[in-house]
């Protein structure tokens, strides 16, 4: 799992910048609407002041005529401010969705491009939470922030200019509290920014826990550990809310501080204003206008600033936590000028292939050299953990070796166009995972344009057609998440049907018949022989009845190739294979 990185401005821009492409016209329109709304909003207190002055000076005759146009203007200004601000808000939400969605698509594409090995080092819950938070952050940045700051900045600028025009002394007096408000906000921001990260961390670990619980529900129930898991989850939830509370309290203190500062500001304004009135240099109406304008003038420096800094802190944290996953280089990518594969013969050769998983003390595979001529079959056998599954992962580049090369038809697989290579090599993994979709769609996934007949033919070969038809919904049966509604052997046969349908020139079967009963397996062997005739096949199996007819059998032990030959050769050598064969065919081991 990539750690949180310090988020540089350059990285931040690289992450979000492209999602803003082509939106400047719309943002210009948003600014226009906001500007219009701000103008109308400022006009409103100014007109109120005029109405009051008119009331005072025209008491008696002519009052009605004097205030009617002013009141009409006041209503129009008020209405216009609502219309423009809603228009601006609507368009900025629309843009926010656009930018946010593009960002998420890009982030998900990046994850699709990860090296397969990275998924075994990543927790689904954590990455899910990070994506979710960054998506929200992108949306807030591209819509909410603009919606919140820009109108207030505009309004306060216009108010400021209007204030200077009405009475510059009162304008300055209105702003005396600003340095205090800014200092307060920056102080709280500095205090909370680290906590924001801790809060996010708590969220990630909760998200991870929840997913793990669901994925491990069988052992949890089987060992009756629900209470323990529930307690752990409650702890994780408390941690999230505790951290949230810490943050909320800090920001609430800031709001309290800002509120107090505002009271102070108004008192100062009132006293100074009253003094100017007694001096005869200020009208009562103007004082009331300034009191009305005070909160607009101060907003960018107190409540809004606080709100924006809080959001910036959230956005910064969300992007920082995702940035490690975002920028980490992938190793398994197309070379500079990848070779396109034409017709594949299917010769596979390993030459001195060694490998070590990250964090392991010793090599998992030691200098393996092996050649599988085109159209022949190789069986890999050996104890659990000896490296069989690892070895075949180099063929379709789920892993790249630490040293040595793997070639397909003489091309180093690293030089081949990755999609061509993966299309040429079909794999049935040791544990079959299916999509939560129908059987038909799961099989067709390998070849989306396959006809129903082709699917059925592939299923017949894989001994799957019969059981599928016996299900209530037949090929339309939903298999459940990861395929849980099917038995292990049924899942395996679906996986086989899928790869038979794709019919790749190179086929790798990793323990792909291990869950079948002997009778079904026997039937499948016949089909498998057919399938193997047409292509290069590598079979990994513990049950030797599956592998003895292979053209070559390779025995791996602790990452080393210890025996290689035909069934007959290896029985004659009398090594590990011979021992295993005797054990499995019901013989006994002589001392
Ligand atoms: N993704 C991984 N990350 C780290 N180590 C791994 C990973 N996958 C396998 N290993 C380790 O590499 C070694 C070889 O594993 P591999 O899966 O290749 O064995 P195998 O021969 O296929 O065993 P089995 O017969 O049980 O399937 C094991 O010790 C295993 O713990
Ligand atoms: Mg294996």
UniProtKB/TrEMBL annotation:
Pfam families for this protein: ABC_membrane (PF00664), ABC_tran (PF00005)
Where does this chain mainly localize?
membrane
PROSITE patterns this protein is in? ABC_TM1F, ABC_TRANSPORTER_1, ABC_TRANSPORTER_2
Tell me yes or no: is Transmembrane helix among this UniProt entry's keywords: yes
Q: Which GO terms describe its molecular function?
A: ABC-type oligopeptide transporter activity; ATP binding; ATP hydrolysis activity
Please, which domain of life does this record's source organism belong to?
A: Bacteria
* Membrane topology qualifier: Multi-pass membrane protein
Q: Where in the cell is it found?
A: Cell membrane
- One cellular component (GO) term of this entry: plasma membrane
Q: Which residues form the ABC transmembrane type-1 domain?
A: 28-301
Cell membrane recorded as keyword: yes
ABC transporter domain ranges (all copies): 348-583
Q: Which residues cross the membrane?
A: 25-43, 63-85, 149-166, 172-190, 263-281
Keyword line: ATP-binding, Cell membrane, Membrane, Nucleotide-binding, Transmembrane, Transmembrane helix, Transport
Q: What is this protein called?
A: ABC transporter related-protein
**Native organism:** Candidatus Uhrbacteria bacterium GW2011_GWD2_52_7
């Amino acid at each position: 799992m990539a750690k949180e990185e310090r988020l540089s401005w350059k990285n931040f821009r690289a992450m979000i910048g492209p999602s803003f492409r082509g939106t400047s016209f719309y943002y210009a329109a948003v600014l226009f609407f906001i500007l219009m709304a701000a103008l109308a909003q400022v006009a409103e207190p100014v007109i109120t002041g005029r109405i009051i002055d008119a009331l005072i000076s025209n008491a008696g005759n002519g009052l009605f005529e004097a205030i009617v146009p002013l009141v009409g203007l006041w209503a129009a200004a008020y209405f216009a401010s609502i219309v423009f601000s809603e228009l601006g808000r609507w368009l900025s939400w629309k843009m926010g969705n656009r930018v946010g969605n593009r960002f998420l698509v890009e982030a998900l594409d990046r994850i699709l491009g990860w090296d397969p090995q990275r998924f075994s080092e990543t927790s689904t819950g954590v990455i899910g939470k990070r994506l979710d938070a960054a998506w929200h952050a992108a949306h807030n940045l591209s819509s909410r922030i603009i919606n919140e700051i820009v109108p207030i900045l505009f309004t306060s600028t216009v108010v400021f200019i209007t204030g200077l025009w009405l009475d510059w002394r009162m304008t300055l007096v209105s702003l005396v509290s600003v340095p205090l408000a800014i200092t307060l906000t920056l102080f709280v921001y500095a205090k909370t920014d680290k906590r924001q990260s801790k809060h996010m961390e708590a969220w990630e670990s909760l998200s991870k826990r929840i997913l793990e619980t669901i994925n491990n529900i069988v052992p949890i129930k089987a060992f009756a550990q629900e209470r323990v898991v529930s307690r752990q989850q409650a702890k994780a939830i408390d941690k999230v809310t505790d951290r949230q509370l810490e943050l909320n309290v800090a920001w609430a203190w800031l709001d309290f501080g800002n509120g107090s500062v505002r009271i102070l500001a108004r008192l100062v304004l009132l006293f100074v204003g009253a003094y100017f009135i007694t001096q005869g240099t200020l009208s009562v109406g103007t004082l009331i206008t300034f009191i009305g304008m005070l909160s607009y003038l101060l907003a960018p420096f107190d409540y809004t600033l606080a709100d924006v800094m809080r959001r910036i802190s959230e956005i910064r944290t969300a992007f920082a936590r995702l940035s490690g996953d975002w920028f980490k280089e992938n190793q398994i990518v197309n070379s500079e000028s990848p070779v396109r594969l034409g017709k594949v013969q299917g010769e596979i050769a390993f030459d001195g292939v060694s490998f070590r998983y990250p964090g392991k003390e010793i090599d998992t595979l030691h200098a393996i050299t092996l050649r599988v001529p085109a159209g022949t079959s190789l069986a890999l056998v050996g104890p659990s953990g000896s490296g069989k599954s690892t070895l075949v992962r180099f063929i379709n580049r789920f892993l790249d070796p630490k040293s040595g090369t793997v070639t397909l038809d003489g091309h180093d697989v690293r030089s081949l166009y990755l999609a061509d290579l993966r299309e040429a090599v079909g794999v049935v993994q040791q544990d079959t995972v299916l999509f939560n979709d129908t059987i038909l769609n799961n099989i067709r996934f390998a070849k989306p344009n396959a006809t129903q007949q082709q699917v059925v033919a592939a299923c017949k070969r894989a001994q799957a057609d019969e059981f599928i038809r016996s299900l209530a919904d037949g090929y339309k049966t939903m298999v459940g998440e990861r395929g849980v509604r099917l038995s292990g052997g049924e899942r395996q046969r679906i996986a086989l049907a899928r790869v038979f349908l794709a019919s790749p020139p190179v086929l790798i079967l990793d323990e792909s018949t291990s869950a079948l009963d002997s009778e079904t397996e026997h039937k499948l062997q016949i089909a498998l022989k057919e399938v193997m005739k047409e292509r290069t096949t590598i079979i990994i199996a513990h049950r030797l009845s599956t592998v003895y007819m292979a053209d070559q059998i390779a025995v791996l032990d602790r990452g080393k190739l210890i025996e290689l030959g035909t069934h007959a050769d290896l029985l004659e050598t009398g090594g590990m294979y011979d021992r295993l064969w005797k054990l499995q065919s019901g013989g006994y081991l002589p001392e």
